[in-house]
Design brief:
The chain has 272 residues and is α/β, with parallel strands linked by helices. The chain folds into three domains: 1-43; 48-189, Cyclin A, domain 1, CATH 1.10.472.150; 193-272, Collagenase (Catalytic Domain) (3-Layer(aba) Sandwich), CATH 3.40.390. It is built from twelve helices and six strands. The chain has helices spanning 2-43, 48-57, 59-63, 69-81, 95-109, 154-162, 170-182, 195-214, 227-240, 242-248, 250-260, 264-267; strands at residues 84-87, 122-126, 130-132, 137-139, 141-144, 149-153. The chain has a four-stranded mixed beta sheet. Strands 3-4 form a two-stranded antiparallel sheet. The protein is globular, with a radius of gyration of 23 Å. 33% of the residues are buried.
Length: 272
């Protein structure tokens, strides 16, 4: 009897230790395997199906110089495979959703090396406007930095893509918010926006907000809500109404060009 008890006293701790080591090894293996799959995917050339979607729907991509397109494709691959795309009220997340949402983010960060909005690892997609339990309002899109989520209405995303010069673009608007937050979050992408340009933007924002709220301003009234909405709406105009923005508020246009390190007037071959 004493021998049996002794064996049990020895066996249980050993078994528990072995089980613990197995669990640790198994978790490590799953993590390592997932990382390997991720790095393999982002190093593969963009698929023919995804390239077809880009060429058909992404005006920004089509306006790039031929020499720039491979880099844009590579960055889309990395962004797309580093995020979880989650269907909310859409039946399924389609290839068009993955590619075009990724393209809308890379459009803003294209000239910012190594910036993939790493804090935001989840992209939630609703079919249309949705009700937020947090704000108690209906939204077309929003950004939640604490939860690492970018949330979009696919209907309004498509509307923004459908008209490229009306100054309304849900994708650009929400990705602008994500950039604003990402720049402040302490991770490997912190403080990537030029500090001098940010200082200039703050001064311009303080100058323009009262003008917007008095009416008769190039930017729509929602830009007058606060500094964050001012930035997001400005980026919509920067990409969709660059001629008008540069003509009416040139220092704002040049400041955004410095922040994003790109100039739509040159990209779109417009004349100043």
């Amino acid at each position: 009897m004493d021998t049996v008890v002794l064996l049990l006293l020895i066996t249980f701790p050993v078994a528990a230790l072995l089980f613990g080591l197995y669990s640790i090894f198994n978790d490590f293996y799953k993590y390592f395997a997932e990382e390997v799959r991720y790095w393999i995917k982002i190093r593969q050339p963009i698929s023919k199906d995804h390239l077809r979607i880009l060429k058909k729907y992404c005006a920004y991509y089509n306006r790039l110089d031929t020499s720039q397109k491979p880099e844009f494709e590579r960055k889309i691959q990395r962004f797309m495979y580093s995020k979880r795309f989650i269907a909310r009220s859409v039946p399924v997340v389609t290839a068009e959703m993955r590619v075009l949402i990724s393209a809308s983010a890379i459009q803003l960060t294209f000239a910012l090396p190594g910036i993939y909005l790493s804090n935001f690892d989840k992209i939630l997609i609703y079919a249309d406007s949705y009700y937020s339990q947090i704000t108690k309002k209906y939204h077309l899109g929003e950004v939640n930095p604490r939860a690492g989520m970018i949330i979009l209405s696919w209907h309004h995303f498509v509307q923004g893509y459908g008209d490229l010069d009306d100054g309304y673009n849900v994708a650009i608007h929400e990705m602008a918010h994500a950039i604003h937050f990402e720049n402040l979050i302490k991770n490997d992408e912190v403080a990537f926006l030029d500090q001098h340009a940010l200082s200039s933007l703050a001064q311009i924002t303080n100058r323009e907000l009262p003008k917007i709220n008095r009416g008769r301003h190039l930017l729509r009234s929602y830009a007058g809500t606060n500094q964050y909405e001012f930035f997001a709406v400005t980026l919509e105009y920067f990409f969709e109404k660059p001629v008008e923005l540069n003509a009416e508020i040139p220092d704002l246009y040049q400041t955004i060009a410095a922040l994003l390190r790109q100039d739509p007037l040159k990209l779109y071959n417009f004349s100043n």
